[in-house]
Amino acid sequence: MSPRYLFVALLCCGLLVSCGKKSGDKDPMSETAVVALSGDADNLNPVVSSSSTAGDIQGNIYPTMFDVSFNLREGKLEFEPSLVRAWEFTNGGKDVILYIRPDVRWEDGILVTPLDIKFSYELYGDPEVASPRRSYLESMIHTDGAFDVDKSIEILNDTTMVFHFTRQYPLQLFHLNLSPIPRHVYRNADRRTLRANPANERPVGAGPFKLEEWTRQQQIVLTRNPTSTLPYPAKLERVIFRVISEPTTRLTELKKGDIDLMQPIYPEDVADLQETSPDIKLVTLPPRSYEYIGWMNIDNDEWHASGKKTLKPHPLFGDRRVRQALTYAINRKAILEDQLGPYGELAVTDFSPIFRWAIQHDLIPYPYAPDRARQLLRSAGWSDSDGDGLLDKGGKSFEFTLYYNVGNKRREYVATMVQENLKQIGIKVNLQSVEPVVLYKNIEEKKYDAFIAGFSVGLAIDPADRWGEITSPFNTVAFENRRVAELLKLGLHVPTERDAGPFWKEIQSILHQEQPCTFLYWVKDIVAVNRRLKGANPNILGVTDHMWDWKIGDPKSAITY
Amino acid sequence: MYRYLIRRVLSAIPLLFGLLTITFFIIRLAPGDPVSLYVQGDVDPHYAEDLRAALGLSDPLPLQYVKWLKGTLTGELGVSFSKNAEVADILLETLPNTLLLTTFALLFNFVLGIGLGIITALKRGSGIDHTVNITSLFVYSMPEFWLGLMLILGVSLQLGVLPASGMHSPLAKYLSFPEYVWDVAQHMVLPVFVLGVASAAATGRYMRGSLLEVINQDYIRTARAKGLSEVLVIGKHAMRNAMIPIITLLGLSLPFLLGGAVIVETVFAWPGMGKLTIDAIFSRDYPLIIACTMVSGVMVISGNLVADLLYALVDPRIRYD
Amino acid sequence: MTERGRVPKVRLAAGGSPLLRFLDRNVPGVAFIRSGQRRFGLLLLGYVLAFVVVILGAWQDFIRAFVSFGLSMYLLIVDPGHLVVFWRGEVIEHWIAALFSVVMLMLLWWLNRRYLLVEAADAVEHERSQWALAWREFKKNRVATTGLVVIVLLYTVVFLCPFLAPFHPNAFQDGIVTKYQPPLSTVTVLHLKERRVAGLEQSSLNVDPEHAHAIRQLIEVNRELTEEGFGRQRAVDGYHVEGSNVIATVGNEADSISIASLVDSDPDVFAGERRYLLGTDGYGRDLLSRILYGSRVSLTLGFIAVLLSVSLGTFVGLMAGYFGRYTDSVLMRIVDVLLAFPALFLILIIIAVFESVSVPRILLIVVVLGLTSWMGISRLVRGEVLSLKERDHVMAAHALGFGHARILFRHILPNVLTPIIVNATLRIGGIILVEAALSYLNIGVQPPTASWGNIIFEGKDVLAHAWWVSTLPGFAIVLVVVCFNLVGDGLRDAFDPMLNNERA
Q1: In angstroms, what CA-CA distances link B272 with A184, B167, B275, C319?
Q2: Cα dihedral across residues A537, A540, A543, A549: positive or negative
Q3: pLDDT tens-digit profile of C285-337?
């Protein structure tokens, strides 16, 4: 066989194999929007999925209990009817009666009933299923430590059900907003392998879209669900979610006009985009995640050695003055300006600025003041007594290793900057980047003395995980403060969110004073929207919020393929 | 011959088994937790334990091993942690992509390499010979990823000719078949070139050396003396022997066909085995890591076998008993 | 530098003035040029002059390094308790650079002189060994010798980079102004009177009064030696004088600096320029300095890793080949299993496993690269040993009842050495490429330490608007690998003159 024939033959073979599903028909693309994301969905079953991409997609396939929005001016979540037509609180707020819409059908024509909802909650609460959202059910009725679905959920009739809680608290409706999945599809599914159930790949939903195709690591295609009544079939024929992990490629495609909506956009690309692509509108989302440098507050070696009993201050960072000094010595403003510019905000504490009503406004962020830092360190007993250029105390030099995750450029920048800044005041920092799977585990187990990490806050204030028990995996720096513990108890047991305001403000003052970690900055995500895409409303809840109202504005500029 | 073949295949089984067992234990000894990638932000702190139990990671190690062994022997590759799908399905999705890339790279490698080898051997000492030799040396000494980046910089970013990464355009699905082929072909050019060119330089050097050695031998001189045409002498008599080392090289390149090319796939974001393996390792996706090792182990072992057999096929002096 | 020991002996050009004869003896290279070996002589002379230029260019640091070294040695002797003051990498690398340049100069001078003297005493070439023959053969190969010269120069750079690099490789300040400067660009700097961040107070120093003076002096010298150089400067995008203040623009902001805090009130004096020959990276670090320092990682790492893999491979190969039977089959099965792993995959796994053990990443990579690349060599050695075993002299040694160790190391090893050396040289290039690839996958040498691979990695996402970051270190890699390949090919041809020069 001559090479040429071989060439053609192989090309054809390869193409046939790699694209067996390809259909020959041409599709009018004027009804299609393209969304570019950096990562694939991990799963399309809302019970077990945990990636943000999955979140963006599921909300448009599966029925949502409420139509949630976040009121930025008020700084709180608001709930509108969706699958739940109406609701009322009884029994002193401990019981919630939900009236379910009678006219919502799954894609396959079967009605969505309270039975589906109850079945789904049973899955969410089953440890064998291992749902990341099992904690939503924590304040419902438990028997012997396990979620008791029959006692928690009572079905009154085909359209009415009651949820029983053990207490009244501000987040009840939020916790009732878990998407149901069809009982008739999953009834016989093995709980343990639910996350790999083949049905997850062809979800049966009831939302305005349905899944047309999912090619892993490449794309997820949604099409209009013509039978949806939640709220109605999508206005667009089709939305394609493309997974493009390479930032450069993503940007190129965006500039070419092949992408209608894209997240994330990096701050360093903004100027270029604004200059070269007038068709692209950039939307800045309010900050929900922050990054910080964690300083281990307790002597973690002793703590681990004693079986998590002995609590002694950490030899380096146990002293509040040292932690304050570190914050003074790190030029956070320079880091912020270089890395985020206007798309970041100096973090004072971990209470997100979006909760305006809860923010303690009179705290002044620590400025960059190396001299002040040195004073504080001296008062804490650190000075260079042997002349090696490093601070020392009791014969030990001030030296530590700062861990951060490999491949995260911004954190690498922070780490490098911290190393350089602290060198100026006589502290030696060794940098160590580690794989995320290792980093997160060791941070949660409190194995690292110093590390750079980030945290995403929920849409309602709940600082208990972060600053409560030392054993909580998210209290990564092992911070413990009696007053904070009291305030947490007070703040979490108020009937409405607003009542907790004074308690949250006091916690912030304490955190600011104690500096359990050095808070760096809040990150404001940037979303790019092509102006031809109308009705897009990327907001703090996600970039695909109300995707069913999207439209392609000018058909002439449609992607021609 | 057949006995030899059977013996080799049989001896490959413990080899493969050892390989997989080592992998099984090594990756579990490695620090890092497959579930920690999920335990982020505002999820339940207890989620990690639930998930570990669900994935069978809280069992004692020997039990995990027995379970895995049972699965493997019955042809069950398990479920990927990070992708929540059957490992077999993932492989079926990825392997064709890799095969497409590597087949062409291999073709490019051998066509270019053999061609250059023949030309430089015949025109030995000429300007062409020197130019090709020097260029080969430089190409051969280049880091693949750097060459890739430079091509992306020059060809894709500056000239804007070829796509910088990926396997096809976003909406390739809606293209007609010829357009689709054209689209993928465009995406393939750069990765195939980078993958193939360095090996082509090596192949070329081998080919040149081997052909030169043959040309100087008596029987070629005899053939020439008999007045046979140069084309016939080189094409028929010399090539047959000169190809022997190249054939071996071809056999040894087989693992690369399915194993993929980690670096090039990463640079060009090609959705193939190499990239899959890297992702699997970084997310500690144990079942997927083992499966990737298996694929590439099988390919290496069979590649060696094929190389030996090919050798016997081309060179009748070699016999295996 | 052993190859210097094999410089050709020179027949002195007859006559000449006393000055010329003095130069013959004391300036390496001159005698060679005069006696007709111009190429070699010029190379030698150039090499020596390069040292002189470097020393003159960095004379302040050069002297400080010696002061520091001297004081340290003095303290080490009179009062060994102060190790901590000077036992620091940044200080020691300066000592090494200073000592290296002096020792090299003296060595060259001495060798030059010695060979002239030897010439006078004994004109007969007595070295006729295989090595001498190979060297003679190698020298004929111009391309290979050029490769060797470049490699020698590069290794010299490795030692001298504290003196050669214009800036500290990790130093950056005012990133907003200095980042992503293209090659050959300059930025404006304002010279400040005081350091931007005051140094540590000497007052807290707790020193032995007996040697207080020496210690204080040493601390001061070391501080100057390790000073990164930007402490009294401030990089700005532009400035203008407004009354008693200088208004500096930095990014979008304007900053007011009092003239009193600058070195002088005259703009010509307080403002200057800083030039970046190869541009800067995303932090504003000088790329040239980083590439120079990066050579240390690539070159030493490649060398040590190959040494490790060759030793291990040779050992295993010797054992398997010599003892045969079960030893052979067990060892070769291990080799088979390891070869069946995709190499990069094996490396990834091992690095992941040992990452948590607190070994420096560089060391880990050296070991991993060494441990994952010995299989080829062991096969090669095994093959050689198998055939050597049957040779007469080995049989004779057996018959004489020599021990295994003696036979192995006296009769077999020397005979397999040449293929090993050739293979090792060719392998260094490959290892350097693998190290770069690891850095590219972000599991290489830990930042901020510069290595060529991780500089390329840092630049890959900004290829579109800062092409130089990724492009330039790549050339360095290509240069080094090409040279090693040239030398390797040259060595192979030299060791085996029978082998057709054209082979492969």
Answers
A1: 37, 10, 6, 40
A2: negative
A3: 999 999 999 998 888 888 899 999 999 999 999 888 888 788 888 888 888 87
C-alpha angle with apex C490: C39 to B207, nearest 5 degrees? 135
Q: What is the dihedral of CA B210, B215, B216, B221, to 10 degrees?
A: 160
Task: Report CB contact under 8 Å: C206, A385.
Answer: yes
The Cα of B145 is separated from the nearest Cα of chain A by a number of Å equal to 15
The angle formed by the CA atoms of residues C3, C8 and C14, to the nearest 5 degrees, is 150
Q: Which of A474, A458, A456 is nearest to A466 (CA)?
A: A474
**In contact, A419 and A329? CB cutoff 8 Å:** no
Helices C59-78 and C89-121 cross at an angle (nearest 10°) of 100
User: Domain total for chain A?
Assistant: 3
ipTM: 0.85
* Pairs of CB atoms within 8 A across A/B: 181
Q: Which residues of A touch B85 (CB under 8 A)?
A: 196, 201, 216
Q: Check A338 against C172: CB less than 8 A apart.
A: no
Asked if residue A426 and residue A530 are part of one domain, the reply reads no
The structural domain count of chain C equals 3
Q: Where are the beta strands (DSSP E) in C351-485?
A: none
Q: Is residue C162 part of a domain?
A: no
Within a 10 A sphere around the Cβ of B135, how many other Cβ atoms?
A: 14
Q: From CA A85, how far away is CA A98, in angstroms rounded?
A: 8
State the DSSP H helix or E strand holding residue A273, giving kind and residue range, or none if neither: helix A267-276
Q: Is a pLDDT exceeding 60 seen at residue B221? A: yes
Report yes or no: A370 and A425 within 8 Å, Cβ to Cβ: yes
Three-state secondary-structure class, residue A142: strand
- What is the residue whose two structure tokens read 């130089």? C468
* CA contacts within 13 A on the Cβ side of A91: 12
- pLDDT tens profile A150-198: 999 999 999 999 999 998 888 889 899 999 999 999 999 988 888 888 8
| CA atoms of C346 and A540, how far apart (whole Å) | 43
Token pair belonging to C254: 């304007």
At C368-382, the pLDDT tens digits run: 888 888 888 898 888
* Domain membership flag for residue A424: yes
Q: Are residues C314 and C270 in the same domain?
A: no
Q: How far apart are CA C157 and CA C99, in angstroms?
A: 14
> Any idea what DSSP says for residue A546?
T
The predicted structure's pLDDT at residue C297: 87
**Is some CB atom of chain C closer than 8 A to the CB atom of A409?**
yes
Burial B302-316 (b: 16+ CB within 10 A, else e): bbbbbbbbbbeebee
The residue whose two tokens read 């639930």 is: B50
Measured between alpha carbons, how far is A205 from A223 in angstroms, rounded to an integer? 12
Residue span of the structural domain in which C449 resides: 287-503
Domains and CATH numbers, chain B: 96-271 (1.10.3720.10)
pTM of the model: 0.85
Q: Which amino acid is at B125?
A: G
Nearest in space to B35 (alpha carbons), one of B10, B52, B20, B59: B52
Pinpoint the alpha helices (H) of B45-172: 47-54, 61-73, 87-122, 127-140, 144-151
- Cα dihedral C281→C285→C288→C290 (10° resolution): -100
Q: For residue A145, give its domain range.
A: 62-198
- CATH value at residue C474: 1.10.3720.10
Question: Does C172 sit within 8 Å of A387, measured CB to CB?
Answer: no
Q: What share of chain A is helix, strand, coil (3-state, %, to 5)?
A: 35, 25, 45
Sheet holding A289-295, edge to edge: A344-346, A517-523, A289-295, A450-456, A399-405, A428-434
Residues of chain A with C-beta less than 8 angstroms from the C-beta of B269:
244-246, 249
Whether C442 and A391 lie within 8 Å, measured CB to CB: no
